[in-house]
Design goal:
single chain; globular
Length: 256
């Protein structure tokens, strides 16, 4: 049975200022797919997420998310922005940071009540952080802080989860744990995941397809279909070599 399409881009062009970001992008993503977004710095990976969030509108063409033109503040989309290190002296508790996901449209802190507490506890348990709920955020590791951001994005029970470089600044063991966590969440909730990263190797065992972006263009497909010497050389417009060894993929080229 064909799964429902949840993200569609038709002939999408985007120009910001004097710079063309996307040229004639066409793709569709189905319910429950796990997609990674790849490409060099400046290729538009984060900007692509902003299109889906309704923070940028295409210069021409059409973007549809869950059958509608994207608008800001859509609770059906969970978003984990690029993570920045937290001040070690920050006294906010882990529970408070997660709770911000319920208070984005309000001033100040949400008032405690049983329903609110139950929602926060549920997502903390889902990301294996309930035992650290009262810990000051500044005392948590980078991987633990990333789990809190994921929990925050899950509070509204989204149908789509967007993650911008969630593995950056994590060592390999913590990065692997975050990948496993996101995969489990995706399977348990049957949600669509789009994850931006620079290194596909940690994701090869879990993703359904990849989007590779460069020079205003993109391709989408299984990793073996698009991350190869022929396809990437065409995309870059210059010679690029893809090396597969010991289950890992390495892309070699002067413009990478």
């Amino acid at each position: 049975m064909n799964q429902k399409t949840v993200i569609e881009l038709h002939d999408v062009n985007l120009v910001l200022g004097s710079r063309e970001i996307f040229h004639n992008i066409n793709l569709s993503i189905s319910e429950g797919e796990f997609i990674t977004i790849l490409g060099p710095n400046g290729a538009g990976k984060s900007t692509f997420l902003k299109l889906l969030l309704g923070l940028n509108a295409p210069t021409s063409g059409q973007v549809k998310v869950l059958g509608r033109v994207p608008t800001k503040g859509n609770n059906e989309i969970g978003y984990v922005p690029q993570h920045r290190s937290v001040d070690v002296d920050l006294a906010l508790q882990a529970r408070d940071v997660v709770g911000f996901g319920l208070d984005g449209d309000k001033w100040g802190f949400g008032l405690p009540n049983k329903h609110r507490t139950d929602i926060i506890n549920k997502v903390l348990e889902e990301v294996d952080m309930l035992n650290l709920a009262s810990m000051p955020v500044g005392k948590l590791s980078g991987g633990e802080q990333q789990r809190l951001l994921i929990a925050q994005a899950l509070l509204t029970d989204p149908k789509i989860l967007l993650l911008d470089e969630p593995l950056s600044n994590l060592d390999i063991s913590h990065a692997q744990a975050i990948v496993s966590l996101i995969k489990k969440i995706a399977d348990d909730r049957n949600i669509t995941v789009l994850l931006v990263t620079h290194d596909v190797n940690l994701l090869l065992g879990v993703i359904d397809r990849a989007i590779y972006m460069v020079n205003t263009r993109s391709v989408i497909g299984r990793p073996d279909q698009i991350i190869n010497t022929k396809q990437l050389s065409e995309l870059y417009g210059s010679s690029v070599e893809v090396i597969n060894t010991k289950g890992r993929i390495f892309v070699v080229g002067e413009k990478l």
